[in-house]
């Protein structure tokens, strides 16, 4: 599901940027939003003339846990023993790599504007999201300079104009739930 979510964000943003550019889709030979080139494992390279998408962190969301994390009731009313759901947030970095600095800033502005207008993706407004993901909620993240420095040092490259979003929340559920034994009524009889 992580791959589905990041791929969806790349494709959705790419389509949006194509429509904002004013050019017809046939005029644009290449996608404006791409994944980073991971052929070189020592450092990250970004494709010139494009927005690169990079997953920089995965975080477990622990605040929305169920009261009884190890049981659930199926749609037919049977109580099942399950492993607890794992809810995760994805931190996705969008990096603008253009020869003209102004163009990088223009694309970052378009990304922020687009995700401001489209913060929540679900099955109704984005059917291409896929059936396994209920919804994605995007939140702009502002990191302190020290944490930004750590990210760019880990990528082993110089800073590029970029914006970081948290995509909440992908839920991994136990698909192989087992029926849970029910509570039997016990009648205690007094002995004479």
Structural overview:
This protein has helices at residues 2-21, 101-117, 145-155; strands at 33-35, 50-60, 71-73, 79-81, 86-97, 120-122, 135-141, 162-172, 178-179. By secondary structure, it is an alpha+beta fold. It has one domain. The strands form 2 sheets. The chain has a 6-stranded mixed sheet with strand order 1-2-5-8-7-6. The chain has a 3-stranded antiparallel sheet with strand order 3-4-9, with no helix packed on it. α1 packs across α2. The termini are far apart. The relative contact order is 0.20. The model is unreliable at 23-29 and 182-186 (pLDDT under 50).
Rounded Rg = 23 Å
- Return residue spans where pLDDT drops below 50 for at least 5 consecutive residues: 23-29, 182-186
Counting DSSP E segments of at least 2 residues, the number of strands comes to 9
Taken from the alpha-carbon principal axes, the silhouette is globular
Strand content: 25-35%
Name the helix and strand elements from N-terminus to C-terminus, one letter apiece. Answer: HEEEEEHEEHEE
Q: What oligomeric state is this?
A: single chain
Average pLDDT over all residues: 81
Biggest sheet layout: 6 strands, mixed
What order do the strands of the largest sheet run in, or round the barrel if closed?
A: 1-2-5-8-7-6
Number of domains: 1
Short description:
The protein is built from three helices and nine strands; from the N terminus they run H-E-E-E-E-E-H-E-E-H-E-E.
């Amino acid at each position: 599901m992580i791959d589905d979510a990041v791929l969806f964000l790349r494709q959705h943003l790419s389509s949006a940027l194509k429509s904002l550019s004013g050019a017809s889709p046939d005029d644009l030979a290449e996608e404006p939003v791409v994944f980073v080139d991971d052929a070189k494992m020592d450092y990250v390279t970004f494709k010139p003339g494009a927005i690169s998408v990079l997953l920089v962190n995965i975080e477990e969301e622990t605040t929305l846990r169920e009261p009884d994390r190890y049981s659930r009731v199926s749609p037919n009313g049977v109580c099942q023993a399950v492993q607890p759901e794992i809810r995760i947030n994805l931190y996705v970095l969008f990096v603008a790599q253009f020869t003209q600095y102004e163009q990088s800033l223009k694309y970052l502005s378009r990304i922020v504007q687009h995700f401001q207008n489209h913060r929540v993706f679900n099955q109704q407004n984005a059917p291409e999201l896929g059936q396994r993901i209920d919804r994605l909620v995007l939140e702009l993240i502002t990191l302190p300079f020290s944490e930004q420095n750590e990210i760019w040092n880990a990528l082993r490259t110089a800073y590029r104009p970029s914006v970081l979003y948290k995509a909440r929340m992908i839920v991994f559920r136990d698909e192989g739930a087992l029926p849970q034994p029910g509570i039997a009524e016990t009648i205690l009889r007094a002995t004479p």
